[in-house]
Amino acid sequence: MANRDPDSIKRDIDQARDQLALTVDSLAERANPQRLADDVKSAVIGFVKKPAVAASLAGAGALVVFVVVRRIKNR
């Protein structure tokens, strides 16, 4: 092992500590439940806003309304 002065060792330790703190902060932000929920919400909204999906959902909704009205009417 090379002889190193204490100041150099302290600088290396401080640098490693700062790098570790940044990594921990980054991981904490990525694992934040609110951020994850917001990302999922944005993805779902983006998917539903596609014309084909919106038309399919509208058709399915109309079918459900038709079936419910028909069942109520046949009582």
Short précis:
The protein is mostly helical and 75 residues long. Helix content is 85%, strand content 0%.
H and E order: HHH
Radius of gyration: 29 Å
Strand segment tally: 0
Give the structural class: mainly alpha
Largest sheet: none
Overall form: rod-shaped
The number of helices is: 3
Low-pLDDT residue spans = none
Assess the beta-strand content as a share of residues. Answer: under 5%
Determine the mean pLDDT: 91
CA(first)-CA(last) distance: 90 Å
What helical percentage do the residues reach?
Answer: over 70%
Protein name: DUF3618 domain-containing protein
Keywords: Membrane, Transmembrane, Transmembrane helix
Pfam families: DUF3618
Organism: [Mycobacterium] fortunisiensis
